[in-house]
Amino acid sequence: MNKGKSSIDMRMFTRDANFIRLFIVFIAVFIICTALKGTQFLNLGNFQSMMKQFPEYGLLAVAISLALLIGGIDLSAVYIANLSAIIAGKFLLSMAGADTADGTVHVMIFASFGVAVLVGAAAGGLNGYLISGFGIPAMLATLGTQSLFWGLGVVITGGSSMSGFPKPLASMINKSIGAVPVTVILFIAASLLAGLVVSRMVLGRQMKMYGTNNKATTYAGLNNRKLVVTTHVIAGILASLSGIIMWGRYSSCKADNGSSYTMQAILIAVMGGVSPNGGKGNIQGVVLAVLIIQMVSSVLNMFNNIPTACRQIIWGGLLLVVMIFNYVVNNRSKRH
Amino acid sequence: MKKKLLATLMTAVMAATALAGCGGSSGSAGNSTTAAPAAAPADNAGGGSEAAAPAEGGKDYKIAVVVKGNTNGWFIRMNEGIEKWAGETGINAWMTGPTDTDSAQQIQIIQDIINQDIDALCVVPVDPAACEPVLQEAKDKGIVVICHEGSNVENCDYDIEAFNNAGYGAFIMDNLAELMGKKGTYTTMVGFLTTASHNEWADGAVAQQEAQYPDMTLLADLPRVESENNTETAYEKAKEVLKKYPELTGFTGSCSDDTPGIARAINELGLADKVHVVGTGMPNECRELLKNGSLTCITLWDPADAGYAMCELARKCLDGEEIGNGTDLGLPAYDSLQVDESNERLLMGNGFISVTADNVDDYDF
Amino acid sequence: MNFKRLTKKTEFYIAVIILAFCLLVQVRSGQFFTGNNIVDLLRSMTIPMMFCVGEMMVLISGGVDCSFPAIASLSMYFVCTKMDGMFDNPLPYFLVAMLLGLCMGAVNGFIVAKFKFPAMIVTLGTSSLFLGIMQGILGSSEYPLTSGLYSLGSTKLLTAVNAKSGLTSDLPVHFAFMIILVILAWLLMNKTMLGRAIYAVGGDEVAAARAGFHVFGTRMFIFCLSGALAGFIGVCRSSMLLTVSPNNMIGMEMDVIAACVLGGVSLIGGRGGIVGAVLGTALMTIVSNSLILLGVSTQWSRVFTGLIIIVGTAVSAIQEQQRKKKLFVTISDKAEVKG
């Protein structure tokens, strides 16, 4: 009995330790960025610029983390985001034009946000059903739906970007409350909810159990299919939120915005401690990883003579370093 | 172990603060100030002078050029023009851009850059409509905004084109029509259906054909083909199109990867005399094809000149010079700019060139 | 092998789907089963097929390699630009590229084997690293192809002529390389102890170790081989394209992995074979090269491709589930035993 208890304690300790280590990396990167660029980094303008950038791919990273936790992956997240925005955009344009500015336009905009979330949920549901209902490996299923959602976006828009939305849309999304942009608040709220689900709620525990061993969960009485679909629906909703943010920031939507975010999101998730085999990880780590990546990205933009491509060397290197670091320290604590 | 960690952390923090102090002061020494008072609270925390007066001395300008994709040969050539201009004027101008041609990435970069005390921003937007909000921010900070390949952008001071997009498309069509004997069926190829400029050129070509060459027809079943910016895909798609529609006798290419791919396909299928292609191409890539006759002519403009022109235009704006019809930017293709009648922000040069086997050796990019 | 056993294999279903699709294209265009179209398809398949061979080995050993386009591009770019004009014979270019690829593959293999990290993540990281080196440090851009490789690329194996339309298609000599590679891979996986080791390590690493297989060595070998192969293929690609286009292969990894898995190579490891990989690649290539022949408009082509992938994978997944139900009860879908 005692052994069982202490093994649970050990696991919690290691989990927290991973987070602490990531936090140390976060502090270290912050210090290095400050050392490198001083007041150019440490000023309100820069922080605001950074805060405007990370919510959209941060939400995608959280969405993909959920898919990774159940032992799968989601390659279609970005295109769910774009498709949600496109369909919501079409909905909005059918009711209001660029010059509409009366009171009802806010209602219409919120209604179109609702449409976007519904589309995201439906798309996520499709992913979940293909994976659990048909048994298609997640990588293949989401590769197929990636093409499908992208293609649908192209068909609806004809390839060009949609614009001409009522001005209140942009002002709503780009607003700041005090010094903090609305999008950051949305990101924090969504991540908080997702984090609570993963770490504290039964659903989260079930997700991790499924990610560890999905045959055992069947025998344990879990409804596997419902679990997978629920996870992917949540991921789809998060992706659609990201789509709404991009839509508001750019005042336009396009079938293939942010196509480079997929790989970036996977890297962030893994750096944040989510195991790509499933079953391990938490959202707090992912949020930290998002912030780390944003700081590095912004600092690199301050160097005029480092080619942007070198950024990729840093992503790849940082990922490997963090993983090896985690491994080495974990092993050392195991031996004690 | 934890105590050691804490101790190291504290030392690091102290060291960093010391370094930051040095870094901060040297970093802001060379900064010049932005002209108008900033609407957004973008004031520097420490360092950096905050004069409200306009920037003094041309030498202290900072001009950033953000392009569509850093790794594309086209923009590597543009960088040569920018570096040449920077060398001639002594002004700090540099190029940056996303690694993939992704609008979202480009906007992130612009977002960061406008917070770095630059005086002017030259941008070649991937998705012009999507850039409007962030360019608005730039203008609110008093940064001069110059665009290239963004003729519809509202939030810019000027958009400079080597030509106008429809005109370039028409130029491609004129060359193609000549090769096709002004009759036959043709289709257009672009990078993606979502690439704004490629599609504008293709539309321009079609418009020109409809206006000037009534004996030519656009392939109704497949008016536009995607090459996905990949020369092998262009080659494969061209082959497929020629198999399915044997009546086709012409292609227009928009992306610089399209034209050589299509030419190779035509050549291999043995149709070199019957089917023709004209489109954007890079001289180095197409040299062999031009010389062995697979390609007759490619169209393009020199991105180095465009880069040079953007920087020079930015400087003129910053210096408060008057810009309008006849402005000379110091290059043969841009020595007498024309202002577009319907859009006074749109300045056009005279820069498109066609390259054939005879003059391909004059170019090295 | 009797017919019933044949229908239980995923490969069989993929072959049926391929045949059905080919017939459909033939009906819609009348062009599918013509000499020059077949040659075009074979040409298109050459590079992806060679990549699939390497990827299949990594997949069977239990990992996923996402870095092979990066390795191929970097080796190819280095060799074609730094060694430009040095040799007339194309062979040294291939050898140096393979050596570079081997070193990069060794980096992958070492990290995966020593730290037991999931290969997918490690290779995503190294892919970023290698691409960053090529684009950032080497400052890659389009470059003309050196003459030795150019003449290799222009060498034809055979030329097919379509009697009706008069269209000709050339089959490049690289197709022969591909055939040799496929045969060698088949021999390796089915007839050598090393092949057995790869299957064993992918099936259950602990059991393989207890059975006496050298897990570390096997993993290193696979990644080194995959890397060297990638280097070779990179040079092949540029000689087929007749130009050096550094970003050309980026993004191919997903399609190659999908092709392998479609052909029955399991993502978890331990199952699958070269026949499946070949069929999967064939299906993906035929689909992407026949949309125009089918008359699918450019706007709808992506939707179509997505649906094909979904339907194709659904069919093979359902068939897989039937197979599992009938044969045995699995303890876990995950091959590795978590300790």
Show unreliable segments of chain A: 1-10
- What is the CATH third-level topology name of chain C? ABC transporter involved in vitamin B12 uptake, BtuC
**Coarse structural class of chain C:** mainly alpha
Q: Major beta sheet of chain C, specifics? A: 2 strands, antiparallel
Question: pLDDT average of chain A, as an integer?
Answer: 86
Strand order of the largest sheet of chain C: 1-2
Biggest interface and its residues per chain?
A: A-B, 57 and 62 residues
Assembly state: heterotrimer
Mean pLDDT rating of chain C? 86
- In N-to-C order, the SSE pattern of chain A is HHHHHHEEHHHHHHH
Largest pleated sheet of chain A: 2 strands, antiparallel
Query: How far apart are the termini of chain C?
Result: 39 Å
What does this structure look like?
The complex is a heterotrimer of chains A (336), B (365) and C (339). Helices cover 77% and strands 1% of the residues of chain A. Chain A is an all-alpha fold. Chain A has one domain: ABC transporter involved in vitamin B12 uptake, BtuC, CATH 1.10.3470. Chain A has a two-stranded antiparallel ribbon with strand order 1-2. In chain A, helix 2 (44-69) runs parallel beside helix 7 (182-200) and helix 8 crosses helix 10 (224-250). The radius of gyration of chain A is 21 Å and the shape is globular. Residues 1-10 of chain A have low confidence and may be disordered. Chain B is an alpha/beta fold. Chain B folds into two domains: 59-162 and 303-351, 3-Layer(aba) Sandwich (Rossmann fold), CATH 3.40.50.2300; 165-300, Response regulator (Rossmann fold, 3-Layer(aba) Sandwich). Chain B has a seven-stranded mixed sheet, with helices on both faces. In chain B, strands 6, 7, 8, 9, 10, 11 and 14 form a seven-stranded mixed sheet that branches. In chain B, a hairpin with a 6-residue loop joins strand 12 and strand 13. The model of chain B is unreliable at 1-57 (pLDDT under 50). Chain C has 339 residues and is mostly helical. Helices cover 71% and strands 3% of the residues of chain C. Chain C has helices at 3-7, 10-29, 35-60, 68-82, 91-115, 119-137, 147-154, 174-191, 193-203, 205-210, 215-241, 252-262, 274-294, 301-327; strands at residues 156-161, 168-172. A two-stranded antiparallel sheet of chain C has the order 1-2. In chain C, a hairpin with a 6-residue loop joins strand 1 (156-161) and strand 2. In chain C, helix 7 (147-154) packs across helix 11 and helix 8 crosses helix 9 (193-203). Chains in contact: A-B, A-C, B-C. Chains A and C meet through helix 5, helix 9, helix 11 and helix 13 of A and helix 6, helix 12 and helix 14 of C.
